[in-house]
Design goal:
There is one protein chain. The protein is an alpha+beta fold. The chain contains three helices and nine strands, in the order H-E-E-H-E-H-E-E-E-E-E-E. It has a seven-stranded antiparallel sheet. A two-stranded antiparallel ribbon has the order 6-7. The longest helix has 21 residues. The model has no long low-confidence stretch (mean pLDDT 87).
């Protein structure tokens, strides 16, 4: 009986350690100040779920995740793009910042201006919101 209990305790510990090791890899980005999931089948029915902690664990509880975003302070565009092997396809200036539409090795994508885009970065001053495929709901 004791041996069976020890076996299940060991299996449980291995499972917890594996979850801790692999859960962060399920997110598109390293979590910033908040992490938002876009859930639905298209932008028309998109629901946003924003979390402050344990984003990877929260993602496991969501259905139809069709995108993700996070906010960063003191954002360095070049370093960020290098870290995810991203490339700017085109950019748009807006009143107080710049939108960068990019490609990177990310799981979600949309067609913008007849181009496949899977990374959208909105930079305002030193802060930014990054999203895959695009930022839904504005920034």
């Amino acid at each position: 009986m004791q041996l069976i209990r020890l076996f299940f305790l060991t299996i449980s510990a291995v499972f917890v350690l594996a979850a801790v090791a692999f859960l962060p890899q399920n997110l598109c980005f390293e979590s910033g100040s908040t992490y938002t999931f876009y859930c639905g089948t298209s932008s028309a029915d998109c629901k946003t779920v924003t979390v402050h902690n344990f984003a990877a664990a929260q993602k496991l509880c969501l259905k139809n995740v069709c995108g993700e975003s996070t906010d960063y302070e003191n954002f360095d565009l070049d370093s960020f793009l290098e870290s995810i092997d991203g490339k700017v396809v085109f950019e748009e200036e807006f009143s107080d910042g710049v939108n960068y539409y990019c490609t990177a090795d990310l799981p979600y994508s949309v067609n913008v201006n007849n181009q496949k885009i899977n990374l959208h970065i909105a930079v305002k001053g030193n802060a930014a919101r990054v999203a895959s495929p695009i930022i839904f709901g504005g920034y």
